[in-house]
Description:
The complex is a heterodimer of chains A (252) and B (292). Chain A is an alpha/beta fold and 252 residues long. Chain A has two domains: 4-118 and 207-244, D-Maltodextrin-Binding Protein, domain 2 (3-Layer(aba) Sandwich); 120-204, Periplasmic binding protein-like II (D-Maltodextrin-Binding Protein, domain 2, 3-Layer(aba) Sandwich). Chain A is built from nine helices and 14 strands. Chain A starts with 6 loop residues before the first strand and ends in an 8-residue tail after the last helix. Chain B has a single domain, classed as MetI-like fold, CATH 1.10.3720. Chains A and B meet through strand 1, helix 1, strand 6 and helix 6 of A and helix 2, helix 4, strand 2, helix 5 and helix 9 of B.
Amino acid sequence: MRVSIFCKEIRLKNLTISLMAAAVLSAPAFADTVRLGTEGAYAPFNFVNDNGEIDGFEREVGDKLCELAELDCSWVKNDWDSIIPNLVSGNYDVIIAGMSITDERDEVIDFTQDYYPPDPSMYMALAGTKDDAINGIVAAQTSTIQAGYVAESGATLVEFATPDETIAAVKNGEADAVLADDGFLRKYVTESNGELVFLTPTVSLGGGVGLGLRESDTELRDKLNAAIDTMKKDGSLNELIAKWFDGKKGGY
Amino acid sequence: MEFCADPSLISGWRWLACYLTTPKHQLFYLSFLTVFALLAITAPVVLLMGFAGAVARLSSFAPLRWLGTIYTSMVRGVPDVIFFLFVPIALDQLVELTRHKIKCPQVTDAVYRGNEFIVCSEAKMPLQDAAAWVHQGWGFVLAVIAFSIVFGAFAANTLFGALNAVPEKQLETARAFGFTERQTFRKIHVPQMWTYALPGLSNLWMILIKATPLLFLLGIEDIVYWARELGGSKTGYFAYPHPDWRLWYFLGLLVFYLLLTWLSGKVFDRLNQRFNRQNIDQQVLKPIEAGR
Lengths: 252, 292
């Protein structure tokens, strides 16, 4: 299903370019325009900055990959919840939204190789929380590998549509802890002045973060894989990881 | 130095002033226009569809009457949200499928392939390389259509009831004066109907206002989307970090909607008074005339 109405666009180009695009609307499409779908609510992977633009680690990686693969790319915002359905229905061509590669998702869509290494998932809670809170009420974002893990771990899972709401749930006591990617949670902990802490247990989930594509788009997948290879070899991917994740080592 | 040059160095009112005028906030303020645009476009369309539906139900031509009855009862019997979710998807796929059949007859691959829906790139609606606002605009158009279908049926019900509420005697009188059916309908029936329709329509307008956040459900960046996005807690990755402020943003929306409905109520009260005065004149005068 093609659900253009569910997706949110980001104005990337200035008005003149927009008007030009409108003027050539009736002309045949350039096959090379690739639409990148992201959530825009998962700092530092992807978020909407104060200028109202998509920003973050994946914005830079995506733009660089498009440049290397010589693709004309535009960015689209889409809720996490419907990000896979709207990819397969042709609303955009690539998911670039901090999505971990898992077997379950691989049955529905295709992935490129990872451009962000497997990250341990961490439990974050209010200071003073005991480690056994991981068996209590645990918040996670809907349709994430963490939500799947919590559901099977025996803890009580409370799901939220956006990552931000999972943090709010811990802060206002609705949940005992939140399980999410280390890269996403770390800033909340370091900036909380000790109010928020990581619990000791960690969980290893997923095979790193990759680009999601329709299974029929093998040509695009090969192009993007080659571009990721280039970024891994010349060290630019490690640089971007260090830049956005407080000096974290990419190890590519 | 510019007033808002470095947000990390300013505080207090100056910080707030800069924060509330970021380009992202401007998008939030602009999205209020989306709500007004939806209301401004939908309301007249709804009235037209409602009128068409009501007249169809009153028609002496049976198939037209069935069509009107099916339309109103179908929409009435299904929750709005289901319609709002169904209509845009169905309409979008229908448009793309039709374009695909017309523009790329040479493509023999199936459009529905497993879980994928693939039309040729010329058939995409809008095209892949269309500007962002074109994609947004298309989404908005689909939303307006969904709103019009649902609220048009409600309006049809209201107007149908109002047309039936006009006393048969008034119409008989008109006919006795030699008015044709068409003249009776246009000069007596419809003008008299508005008095009975107005309370229902004003109610419908209020419901329409309150239904506008459904735009958010359809993925359109309306005021609810931006309120949630801006209100969420912001870490140091943002120029203006702040804790969870969703409460304040939603409070703002609450005030906005209260103001809008309160103002609408005032306007409808005025309209009601005017229509009622006309009606009372007639109702009071007629018995007097008859008694004399």
